[in-house]
Amino acid sequence: MSSRPVVLSIRGSGEEPLLSNHSDVAVTVVDDHADAADHLATDPVDCVVCANERDGLSGLELLGRLRSAYPHIPSILLTDEPSDEVAAAVADGTASEYLPLAIWRDPASRLAERVTLLSQEQDPTRPDERTLSGLLATARQLLTIHSPDEIADVVIDAAVGTLDFEWTTVWLVDDHDERLTPATGGDDPAYEVGEPPVGRVFETGQPTVQRRDEDAALYFPLGDHGVLAVGTGSVTDIEESDVQLAEILTANASAAFERAAREETLELYRTVVDNVREMVYVLDETARIVLVSRQIVEATGYDRDELVGEHVSKFIDEGGFRRGGELVAELFAAGDDGSRTYRTTGLRADGTDVPIEIELSLLPSDDGEFRGTIGAVRDISDLVETEERLAHERDRFRSLFEHLPDPVVDARFEGDEPIVDTVNPAFERVFGHETGAVVGQSVNDVLVPADDEDTGRELDRRTLAEGDDPVSAEVRRETADGDRYFLFRGIPYRTDDRGTHAFGIYTDISDQRDRERHLQVLHRVLRHNLRTDMGVVIGYLDQLDDRLDDPDDHALIERVTGRAEDVARLADKVHQLEQVIQRDTDLTPGPTDVVARLEPLADGLRDRYPGATIDVEAPETAMAHADERLDLAVENLVENGIQHTHAPEPTVGVRVETDADGVDIHVTDDGPGIPAHERAFLTGDRDVSQVEHGDGLGLWVVNWVVRSLGGEVTFGDPDVGTEVVVHLRPA
C-alpha cells in the first residue's frame, strides 16, 4: 500500500474538490458516475469522496450505485451544512461516513484525516483492496478479449503486476497433438498431456504446489484449455492468501478461455447459418467458382462439374457481376466483416433467367488479404411478381382516385388532427380548393363550417377509434357553391410511425335529402289527415246508424264503417312501416332471447283482444340474431290471424322451435288463410305498385322487419291451415 492513501474524488456542483491539492493524499478527480466506475474498474483506490450537492445524481444516489459494485471500498459523503436526512441515509450503509464541512474550521484537513483512518482500518488479514480492485479490473478486461493468446497475455500481466508473483507462464493445449505449449512462446518447454508437472495437472485437473529448496511454484488447471503456473524465488513467500488470489485469477482466466472457445464455435455456426440459407456459392479472388451448394445446382440446371472452376458469370448476368464487384470492393476497402445485398438476374442452363437476390460477404482472412467471397442466393420470383402486381394495383387505384366523380381527400392523422396529403380533381372542382393550397392543412379547417366543428371532431375520433372499420355520417360542408350536404365515409387504410392514414369520400346528397324531406312531410301530413278524417267519418256513421231504423240501411252503414276502419288501419300500417324504416338505420341486431320478448308481447295482445285465445309454446330460452323490431313482426302476424277470421272467438298459436340453423317462430290461426295475391309480395311476383287498398301491407311490414334482421318469412301448407314461419339466424 502507498504511504499516501489513494482517493477518488467525484466533483460536486460547487468549487474544486477539497483534496485536489492536499499533500497527505493522492487524489484523482472525476466528473460523474460513469467516469468513477471506469476508474474503479482499472485502478486501485483506498477511498471514494463525493459531495451530495451536485448536478444529475445526488451524492447519495451515486455512492449507492458504486457501493453495490465495489462494496469493499470505503466512501465519504460530504455536505455543506449538517442534514439529519443525509445522516440517516448514510447510517443505512450508503456510505462509510458522513462529513458536514461547515462544522469544521479546516474541513480539508479533517477530510484528509478521515480518509487516512478509513484506509488504515481495512482488515489486515485479507488481501489489500488495491489487489482485489486489480483482479476485478483484470476480470473486466478479460470480458473484452476474444483471442486465447491475448487472454494469456492479460493473465500473465495480472499475475506479475497485480499479485506480485516473480514469474508466470500459461500453457495452452493443442488438441490435435495432445501437447501443452507456452502461449506466448518464450523459453518454457512444452509438455505432453500427462507429463509432470504441467501435463499431469492438466490431465488430473488438480492444482499442485511445488516447494523446492530455494523457490516455489503453483500450477492451476485452466479447464480444457491449458495450465497456469506462477512462482516466487522463496518458499516462505507463498502464503495461503497468495494461493487464494491465484485461484481467483485462474477462475477468471478459465472463464475467459471457455467464453472465447464458445464464441469461436458460435461464430462458425453463425457463419454457416447466415450464409447457407438457401443457395450458396464460394468464389476465389479471381471470381471463379470454388464451391456451389446442391440448391444452386438444382436451380440452375447445371451439373456441379459444369460450375466449379468457371467464372461466376456462368449463372449471373453481366450487370449483376459488375454490381457484385463494386460491393465486394466496398466491403474490402472498409474492412467490413458484414455483408451487402443486391438484386440481379440469374441464368439457367436452359437459357431462361430468374430474378434473384444475392447477399455478399468476404471470406475470412487472418492476414488482411482478399481471399474471395461467399454469396447467398435467393429466388425472388414470387416477390417480384407480387411487387409488379402491387404496382399495377397502385396504378389502378391512382386512376380510380383521379377519375372518381365524388370528392376524395387522402389524409393522415397527426395526433387527433386529420392533415391533407392529397385530394382528387373532383375535390378541387366541388370544394373550390386547389391541391397545392390545401396539402398540409387540417381537413377541418378547410371544409368544416364553424358551427359544425364539434361533429367534425367526433367523426375524427370515430375514425381513429374504429381501427380498420369505415365510418359514415351525413355532414354539411362548405363548397364552391355554398353549404351542401354529403354522405361522408371515412376509411382508415394504414397505421405507421407517421400515424393513421384515411380516405374521406364525400357523396353529394343535397338534392336527395331535400326530396326525402319533402316526401316525409307529405307522407306525415297525408297519414295524419287520413287517420283523423276517417275517425270523423266513423263518428258520423255511428250517429247516422242511431237515427235509421231500416235493417238494410244498418247493413249499408256497417259496410261503410268497415271500409272506413280499414282505411284507418291502413294509416296505422303506414305509420308502422315508417317506424320500421327509421329503426332499420337506428338499431343493430345482436344476440336476443326471443322467448323473453314474446311473453310480454302475448300478454299485451291478450289485453287488447280479450275475445281471442293466444297460445304460446316455447322453450325457456331461444337465442337468435334480432332486436326489438321483432315485436312489430310478431304483433302484425297475431293481429292478422285475429282480424281475418270469421270465428267469433279466434285462436292464434305461437310456437318457437330451435335448432343448429337458428330459431323458427310459427304463427298459426283458424282463419281462411292468406290470399295468393298477398303471398306474392314475398315471392316477388307482385310489385309494390300493385297494392290495392293496402292489401298485404301488414305482411309487407313483417317481411321487411325479418329481412332487416337477416331472417326469412315462409308459409306453411295452405291446405292444412294458415301458418306463417319466421326464421331467424342463430345468435
UniProtKB/TrEMBL annotation:
Alphabetic keyword roster: ATP-binding, Kinase, Membrane, Nucleotide-binding, Transferase, Transmembrane, Transmembrane helix, Two-component regulatory system
Broadest EC class assigned to this enzyme: transferase
Reactions the enzyme catalyzes: ATP + protein L-histidine = ADP + protein N-phospho-L-histidine
Source organism superkingdom: Archaea
Cross-referenced Pfam families: GAF_2, HATPase_c, PAS
Listed EC numbers: 2.7.13.3
Limits of the PAS domain: 265-318, 393-467
Membrane topology term: Multi-pass membrane protein
Example of a GO cellular component annotation carried by this entry: membrane
Gene Ontology MF terms: ATP binding; protein histidine kinase activity
Domain Histidine kinase intervals: 525-731
BP terms from Gene Ontology: phosphorelay signal transduction system
InterPro entries xref list: BphY/WalK/GraS-like, CheY-like_superfamily, GAF, GAF-like_dom_sf, HATPase_C_sf, HATPase_dom, His_kinase_dom, PAS
Chief location bin: membrane
Location of the PAC domain: 340-392
Locations listed in the record: Membrane
PANTHER family linked: SENSOR HISTIDINE KINASE GLRK (PTHR42878:SF7), TWO-COMPONENT HISTIDINE KINASE (PTHR42878)
NCBIfam families: sensory_box
Protein name per UniProt: histidine kinase
